[in-house]
Automatic annotation (TrEMBL):
GO terms for cellular component: Golgi membrane. This is Polypeptide N-acetylgalactosaminyltransferase. The keyword Membrane applies. It is an enzyme of class 2 (transferase). Its EC number is 2.4.1.-. GO terms for biological process: protein O-linked glycosylation. The chain crosses the membrane at residues 12-35. It comes from Drosophila navojoa (Fruit fly). InterPro entries: Glyco_trans_2-like, Nucleotide-diphossugar_trans, Ricin_B-like_lectins, Ricin_B_lectin. GO terms for molecular function: carbohydrate binding; polypeptide N-acetylgalactosaminyltransferase activity. Residues 450-575 form the Ricin B lectin domain. Keywords: Disulfide bond, Glycosyltransferase, Golgi apparatus, Lectin, Manganese, Membrane, Transferase, Transmembrane, Transmembrane helix.
Length: 580
């Protein structure tokens, strides 16, 4: 009898324990993988889906787009018109991001102004960008939305957007909408500066007009910015495929960077030991042009360089400026924003000449571009890059020119701009900015590696004297002279192809091997030219065709002689060796 009771009790106890264990397991699973947040956010999303484009009022708004062509947008516009305005997106961030409680600033100290400039964006796409942002951003932080129409062909868009938004906003009361239209095309850089000028929030977010913010995008960024007033941040960008508009996970193992031609690049990052995948990480540049920064810091840095035109380079310039002048950049993987990466530019780049007296200049420029076979897109971008190189790269700008020789001929034509005081030299003095060299050593060591076929560069020294181009064109000759620090006139580039070029004139050191007495000369560089091939044997420079070495037998004189290992007079050192 008591034995049966005992057994029954044990049975009972076992049952209770099993149930408890199961419950514990469920709790652990839910907490560990953020399932609760996931469930809550799914429910919210379903509610948000009611912001469907099929709702009558938005339908009327989007079907107004005059042009249906694919080429105008470079993405599937029809599909965009038929997708929900706010659609369910896959959770692309690490699951630990859902569980984290972010240390957020008080709402009264963290008002956000979002700046969106667009040129010829499909209405449904622009609307999705805006509505998704509104529905996935905590109302109490989202202060205002500044939308700038940069001279789009769809002239009625903004007025119509305003009507519809006012009706929709009536229920929410927030955020304030500031709509502005450039009657003529001003470019995204001008427009973003204008947006920042109109803004009154504590923080600025610059967004393209074909983006979808993902759930919880703001909090991780805000947390970082509130911790460090010198910081600017980017989310990880999730790619949206232009044809199918499918939303996929971006890569949190990449950081933003650039090369010596000032092209943007994604760079691999190495996770430090024990560093979590979801942890914010320093990045030489922003994730493209999508970035968040305090308004105060943005203005302290004098905003985007207003001399840059239409498209390109502004976020790289801001990144360089920020790092050199005491700030930092981080990419925050718990924040995700989707962006349509389009296969080609969807618009023309008008060359900007507004005043009549500049017409002559314009013709000259057009002839020059034709000679260099550059279209207006390339020319605008190259000109912007040249401005950045001239503003921030110090002596390293010659690396830029070595890679982009045609930039030398691009006229800068710096016209007076609204921000009359934009002068990099003045900004450097005012903010006590560091030299570019510092960035190379501390922020973007990749620049040393991304030397694009250069094996060494800089001044070329022999016994404390520097190689120097003397005379005037076309009668130039080489000699040794006292070194002028890091002066351009004494810069040489040794290319992996074997060419040894002067950075200032872009000429190559040559030897006529057929001549009786081989002579040194400076010639225009020609690829594959035997006479311009130099080998580096330790610190010796040996001419490949004649096997003779560059020598300095007498004071400041340069000539060619038989190579003698360890001869001090044949030892030439570059300032900067590039690692292979
Ligand atoms: O004249 C123009 N006026 C505009 O308002 C030309 C463009 N624009 C708008 C345009 O409608 C869009 O919203 O500016 C935005 C950017 O132009 P896109 O989307 O045609 O080009 P993009 O996606 O290549 O833009 C990248 O480079 C730009 C260089 O000036 C900006 O920095 C953009 O912010 C940047 N976009 C991103 O970084 C998103 C991720 C891509 C990457 C990497
Ligand atoms: Mn874009």
């Amino acid at each position: 009898m008591s034995g049966r009771l005992h057994r029954r009790l044990r049975c009972c106890l076992l049952g209770v324990l099993t149930v408890l264990a199961m419950q514990l397991l469920i709790v652990v699973l839910v907490v560990r993988f953020g399932l609760i947040d996931e469930l809550i956010s799914r429910r919210l999303l379903l509610q948000q889906q009611q912001l469907s484009l099929h709702q009558l009022e938005w339908r009327e708004f989007i079907t107004h787009t005059p042009d249906q062509s694919h080429a105008l947008y470079q993405y599937n516009r029809q599909l965009s018109d038929n997708l929900a305005a706010v659609r369910l997106l896959p959770t692309t961030r690490h699951h630990s991001c859902n569980r984290r409680r972010y240390r957020l600033p008080r709402t009264s100290q963290a008002k956000l102004s979002v700046v969106i400039s667009f040129h010829n964006e499909a209405r449904s796409m622009l609307l999705r960008t805006i509505l998704t942002l509104i529905s996935r951003t905590p109302e109490e932080y989202l202060h205002e939305l500044i939308v700038i129409d940069d001279g789009s062909e769809d002239v009625g868009l903004l007025a119509s957007l305003e009507r519809h938004m006012t009706a929709a906003n009536a229920q929410r009361g927030r955020p304030a909408l500031i709509l502005s239209r450039n009657l003529s095309r001003k470019g995204l850089i001008w427009s973003r500066n204008e947006g920042a000028r109109l803004a009154s929030g504590h923080y600025l977010l610059f967004l393209d007009s074909h983006c979808e913010v993902n759930d919880g995008w703001l909090e991780p960024l805000l947390e970082r910015l509130a911790l460090n007033s010198g910081l600017a941040v980017s989310p990880v960008l999730d790619p949206i495929e232009p044809e199918t508009l499918s939303y996929t996970a971006g890569n949190e193992l990449l950081k933003g960077g650039f090369d010596w031609s000032l092209h943007f690049h994604w760079l691999p990052r190495v996770l430090a030991e024990k560093e979590a995948l979801a942890q914010p990480y320093a990045s030489p540049a922003f994730a493209g042009g999508i970035l968040m920064i305090s308004r105060e810091l943005f203005h302290k840095l004098h905003g985007f360089n207003p001399h840059l035109e239409i498209w390109g380079g502004e976020s790289i310039e801001l990144a360089i400026k920020l790092w050199l002048c005491g700030g930092q950049i981080e990419i925050v993987p718990c924040s995700r924003i989707g962006h349509i990466f389009r296969p080609a530019h969807a618009f023309e780049f008008p060359l900007q000449f507004e005043q009549k007296q500049e017409q002559e200049q314009e013709q000259e420029l057009e002839q020059e571009l034709e000679r260099q076979q550059l279209d207006s897109v390339q020319a605008t971008y190259l000109r912007n890059s040249k401005i950045i190189a001239e503003s921030w790269l110090d002596e390293y700008k010659y690396l830029f020119y070595a890679l982009k020789p045609s930039a030398r001929q691009i006229p800068l034509n710096l016209r007076p701009v609204r921000e009359a005081s934009y002068d990099p030299a003045q900004i450097k003095a005012e903010l006590k900015c560091r030299p570019f060299d510092w960035l190379m050593r501390h922020v973007s060591p990749e620049l040393r590696l991304q030397h694009a076929n250069l094996s060494a560069l800089g001044t070329l020294r022999n016994a404390g004297r520097c190689l120097h181009v003397a005379g005037t064109e076309p009668q130039l000759h080489l000699q040794l002279a006292s070194c002028h620090g890091l002066q351009v006139t004494q810069w040489y580039l040794h290319h992996e192809s074997g060419q040894l070029s002067t950075s200032e004139q872009g000429l190559c050191l040559a030897v006529d091997a057929a001549a009786k007495q081989p002579q040194l000369s400076l010639e225009p560089c020609r690829a594959g030219q035997g006479g311009q091939h130099w080998l580096r044997r330790s610190t010796q420079l040996q001419h490949a065709g004649t096997h003779l070495c560059l020598d300095n037998p007498l004071k400041d004189q340069l000539l060619l002689s038989h190579c003698r290992p360890h001869a001090v007079s044949q030892s030439f050192q570059f300032a900067l060796e590039m690692e292979a």
